[in-house]
Amino acid sequence: MRKRISLLCLTLAAIGLLAACSSNSGSTEEKCKKKSLTFVSNFPSDTLDPQLNYTTVRAGIAETLVKVNEQLQIEPWLSKKWKTEDDGTTWVFEIRDGITFQNGKDLNAEAVKHSLERTIKESKAMKSALKIKEMKASGQILTITTTEPLATLPSELVHPNTAIIDIDAPDTKSKPVGTGPFKVASFKPDNEMKVKKYKEYWGGEPKLDEVVLTFNDDENARTSALQSGEADIVYRPAIESLNTLKKDSSIVVDVQPSLRNQMLFYNSRQEAFKDKNVRKAFDVLLNPKDVVDTALAGQGSPANGPFLKSLDFSNDQKTKTYGPSEAQTYLEKAGYILKDGKAIKNGKQLSFKLVTYPYRPELPLMSQMLQSEAKKIGVKIDIQQVENMDEYMTTKNDWGIVTYSLVTAPRGDAGYFFNALYMEGGAFNVGHFHEPALTSVINKLNQTVDQKQRNELARQAGEIAEKETLHSSIVHPNNFVAYRDNVKNWVTTKSEYYVITKDLDVK
Fold first, then answer.
1. For the ranges 80-89, 234-243, 310-319, 410-419, which has the lowest average pLDDT?
2. Strand order in 132-138's β-sheet?
3. Which of 138, 143, 141, 163 is nearest to 77 (CA)?
4. Residue 317: what pLDDT?
5. What is the mean pLDDT of residues 160-188?
6. Which of 182, 141, 221, 205 is CA-nearest to residue 48?
7. What's the mean per-residue pLDDT of the chain?
8. Rg of the Cα trace of the chain?
9. Please, what sign has the CA dihedral across residues 232, 237, 255, 203?
10. Are 113 and 139 in contact (CB under 8 A)?
11. 41 Cβ contact list (under 8 Å, min separation 6)
12. Cα 304 to Cα 14: distance, rounded to the nearest angstrom
């Protein structure tokens, strides 16, 4: 357990000196009441720069103007309220009074403006998403003008990459200064981070004194850390360990349907994948139920599209027939002939590189399943694992398919997914697709406020993306967390944005 009460403290209490622990007189209280918690995750973090990594928000260091709740509805956070003054091009945000950065500086509209200017300078994806033309700051009022009507601007400002930090702090890469309940104490890239509470936090003093966050892409190592007591909370323990963990009375296992989709991204800059029939072949090659049963050990559900069926903008898609025979039919339409066990076109076998990454272990397993099934239809797949998938797939074009795990609707809206995957400059438009009909629908979606109309436009966009097979949705994995029974107020959030909060506590 991380909440440790020393023998000295117990002795003092026993002889009637408990009052010393409740005083504000320094070291005695520190020894008696210090609350610490260790959280182990598979989130790699080589930087704490919020424009490059989600960890700063997840760890409670920095906050955004707007946040999303567990009902997937947006609500105020650093911004008290907002409004649009015209057709969605001019937005006025009122910043809350009485908030300070962790270095004591006041949060005002000017500070927010500078932070967002840095965001769009450092992140091409956020520049594309926010479409900011200019910003003006006066007191606590921030006015944002966009290059075009953008009904979803408040939703876009939920994104952790828009976290507000003091840009004048000396080291935003390893010690950013935000407004959250915890401030950075130390940081070892891709290894460990320690945060300590910010007592003057505007939302009320945090219950924990410090949190140790460690990063480990080995799910078995994460599980062992929990079982040994080295960790208090483990994000995504080994799937095969869940039943054992559930039998341990000292451990709580929380399993929730996630907003994630394990997907296949196709690269249209590879000649073969310019042909949608080739893409369709791989879309039906793997049976999603088999992936759930094998790669996810039953912890998930087959995906009928990018979004969970329970979401209002999810498409009602037709039932597909899966397997090598169906995939072979599409390859034949693309001009490939099965000869001597090889899919041949223009004298060459269809072969390509598939790239995956280890910190979601079901993805390499899914990749191996795809490789095995592809061999049956004469296709040669070489699998490569990389540590930084985002960097690889956005900077290199030597791959045909990547397996990727994406939270497709983190703000309870379809706009994020379609803009990120299919618009020019989108963070996940790694396939370099440009479908004019789809772009037109997404533009309408971006300008539409009415939710029913948005849902209908999202379904239209989904139908176009499905028809063209611009990606393949395979499975929705469950989200699971295990923690010691002394942990209080843990919430497994649907968005996966908020992890370490002011209310998190230990008994």
1. 310-319
2. 79-84, 90-95, 141-146, 132-138
3. 163
4. 67
5. 97
6. 182
7. 91
8. 25
9. positive
10. no
11. 213, 214, 215, 216, 222, 234, 235, 236, 499
12. 62
The pLDDT value recorded for residue 217 is 84
Alpha-carbon dihedral 337, 342, 347, 348, rounded to 10 degrees? 120
Amino acid identity for residue 171 in this structure: D
pLDDT, tens digit, for every residue of 247-259? 999 999 999 989 9
How many other C-beta atoms can be found within 10 angstroms of the C-beta atom of residue 334? 17
Q: Distance from first CA to last CA of the chain, Å, rounded?
A: 10
Q: Which helix (H) or strand (E) holds 385?
A: strand 380-385
418: tokens are 């379609």
d(CA 357, CA 99): 40
For residues 148 and 131, the answer to whether their CB atoms sit within 8 Å is yes
Residue in the block written with tokens 């039953």? 298
pLDDT given at position 236: 93
Return the DSSP state at 61: S
pLDDT band for 319, please (50, 70, 90 cuts): confident
Sheet holding 348-349, edge to edge: 337-339, 342-345, 348-349
pLDDT at 19 over 70: no
